[in-house]
Amino acid sequence: MLRFSVLLRRSNLSGCRLWFSTGEPNKEVNTKQVLMELRRKTGYPLITCRQALQASGYNVEKAKEHLLQLAKEKGWNTMQMDGGVLKEGLISVVTNKNNGLIVEVNCQTDFVAKTKEFQSLVKDAAQTLLDVYSTQQPSKIDLNPPELLKLVVSGKKQTIEDTVAITIGKLKEKIEIRRASLLSVPTNSILAVYIHPSVLISKTRPGSTLGSYGAMVSLSPTDENTGKSSIKMAGRDIAQHIVGMNPSCIGTCLKPTPNKSVTDSTPDDDVINPPEMLSPDESSHELLKQPFLLDSSISVAHWLNYHQLNVNDFIRFQVGEKTKSAEK
């Protein structure tokens, strides 16, 4: 007579439906080997993996589905709870030819922000938003987080909302996509970005898309012969300045009019130190008037003039910073 056993989820999964097992595993199944395989593939505790295997007749794929459903249900419950202010997390910046997307994803502790699961979520969310919202029209858009959650993750069959719920269920901590913005530039402009590395990232490499600060800047050359590669290199320096000095706007500055009457000056001197340009102002929140981060003896306006560039727009994010919408 066939014996059937009922596996009831532990107290931390109470309120969920019952799962049924067909009893003993197939004699050909190496239970210890299957248990370790599921543990390695999912990262769940051994006791949770053992319960999932028992509930699925020691079928690894079914056990993975079981664990996924558990995490999703627990994550949904956590998402409905008031988790307080989420001040930890990461910024991600991703780009394609003419579009840049910056997103902030928050959690409650830096321990969770260090995990591969959380970092994978941040990357997936950023790439999905870039794929969906990229446009050929120059624009600057603040995206609406509740709408973003309904999007299907690029290359996967689940929504961003489901991915967040599953990650919450696995990491046992509230997570939310706080904000995201898109910056699109015309074909005659260059989009440059800078990500400030975070100590939460175990392996930070050049070109990393994750950090604790991020900035995107749209630039255009004043000289049509300026190469795009040199603009991008200069643009990265400006983006780094924006991260470090936190300007609130581009601002205005007197246009340079090189003094040709000075006989002992060279053309380069006139470009670097145009007589009518304002001196750097350390207290200014205007980008053009600030001392340039990499050379505080000159203003950003001086530096841009030397490199024959104009700044059209920029976006800067910092994890956990106060925003205008949050202050209202």
From TrEMBL:
Keyword Protein biosynthesis: yes
Signal peptide: none
Keyword DNA-binding included in the entry's annotation: no
Keywords, sorted A to Z: Elongation factor, Mitochondrion, Protein biosynthesis
GO BP field: mitochondrial translational elongation
Ranges for domain Translation elongation factor EFTs/EF1B dimerisation: 100-250
A GO MF label: translation elongation factor activity
Gene3D superfamilies (alphabetical): DNA helicase RuvA subunit, C-terminal domain, Elongation factor Ts, dimerisation domain
Record InterPro entries: EF-Ts_dimer_sf, Transl_elong_EFTs/EF1B, Transl_elong_EFTs/EF1B_dimer, Transl_elong_Ts_CS, UBA-like_sf
A cellular component annotation (GO) from this entry: mitochondrion
Pfam families documented for this protein: EF-Ts_N (PF25025), EF_TS (PF00889)
Region ranges (Disordered): 258-282
Cell location: Mitochondrion
Chief site of localization: mitochondrion
Source organism superkingdom: Eukaryota
PANTHER family from the UniProt entry: ELONGATION FACTOR TS, ELONGATION FACTOR TS, MITOCHONDRIAL
Its biological purpose: Associates with the EF-Tu.GDP complex and induces the exchange of GDP to GTP. It remains bound to the aminoacyl-tRNA.EF-Tu.GTP complex up to the GTP hydrolysis stage on the ribosome.
Family: Belongs to the EF-Ts family.
HAMAP family: EF_Ts
Protein name from the UniProt record: Elongation factor Ts, mitochondrial
Gene source species: Ciona intestinalis (Transparent sea squirt)
